[in-house]
Amino acid sequence: MTDNYKYFTDYLACPHTKKNLELSEDNGSLFLMSGDNKYLIQNDIPLLISKLNYNETSDEEFIKSIENFWNSGWEKRSEEDDHSFLYKLDEKEMLDRLTARYELQRSRGEGIGDYLSNEIKLDMLKDKTSIVIGPGCGEEAMELSLICKTKVIGIDISLKSASLTNSLLNKFGDKSGIGIQGDSRFLPIQSNSVDFVFSSGVIHHSPNIQKSVDEIHRVLKPGGKFCVGLYHKNSIGWGKFLLKGLMRGNWTKKSLGQHISSQTEVSWITDEQRNPHTELFSSTECSKLFDNFDRIHIRPGNFYTPGNFLLKFLSLVENTKLMSRFGTMIYVSGSKT
After folding, report:
1. How many other C-beta atoms are found inside a 10 Å radius of the C-beta of residue 18?
2. What is d(CA 75, CA 268) in angstroms, rounded to the nearest whole number?
3. Segment 212-229, tens digit of pLDDT
4. E strands in the chain
5. Considering Cα of 60, then 62, then 66, then 72, what sign does the dihedral take?
6. Is 182 helix (H, G, I), strand (E, B) or coil?
7. CB neighbour class for 85 (10 Å; exposed up to 12, middle 13-18, buried from 19)
8. pLDDT in the model for residue 272
9. Does residue 267 carry a pLDDT above 80?
10. Which pLDDT does position 251 carry in this prediction?
11. Is 228 strand, coil or helix?
């Protein structure tokens, strides 16, 4: 058990009771304990998901399907060329890669590209502690660690994602971060404990996104800040998915939602197991979701010219405020009072 690991366990909490967790050992295995609640630490990854949070068998089974989809998906994706190289980079190579991406987003113009160089700035979280909900392959956790200079707790419902994140964070210095398994609706984090919460392209997969947003509010310190990126309903990119779904006869909210879910994250599909849940959001819906926060700023962004010959002319105005209104993502940022 490293000092790095012990540092971060002080931030963790029982996902069911939200009470403190204590390290315990039993027959050579490490656990985190809170009263009668016992959570295994597997290969340095705390498995902080509690069945007690799921009231119905159907709910538990649905969450398991989400967990299985992302777990098998990241098993696949981490071995593919666009991800596998990340785990071979040294610290300088990783920093150079992230810095180049930062500069690329900055060159697009203020408020036009994605979160990097807009909501996420150089050294903005130095000596602070942050969590990343849904760190995926671990690269976004490294962005916060190396670009923002913050200590990072990466939380993902997929054990594979938590493991990938943990392996990257632990390559680059003491107390850089840790990856853990958890559900965004029941964050295994102490209340009022972290300085920043980041999540991009993730909690729109939550079966109850309002609960996930409320959890972000709970774990933030007073004055703490957040940045969340969600799929933008009123975008050119997602508009084609909605239109295709309607043309296929999906006229109800439920059937259209099922269509959207099944058609997203196709690169993570394994053995015909499709994404169980995805939602799209408008600015108005985001305002309602985050109305418990202070100084809310909502902006669409990350527009890129669609891969359609008839729309190639849009590349001429790709990096403009006008086209950013139709970007595939909507970024919400703010603070906790």
Report:
1. 17
2. 9
3. 999 999 999 999 999 999
4. 22-26, 29-34, 37-42, 45-46, 129-133, 151-156, 177-181, 194-200, 220-231, 294-301, 329-335
5. positive
6. coil
7. exposed
8. 72
9. yes
10. 87
11. strand
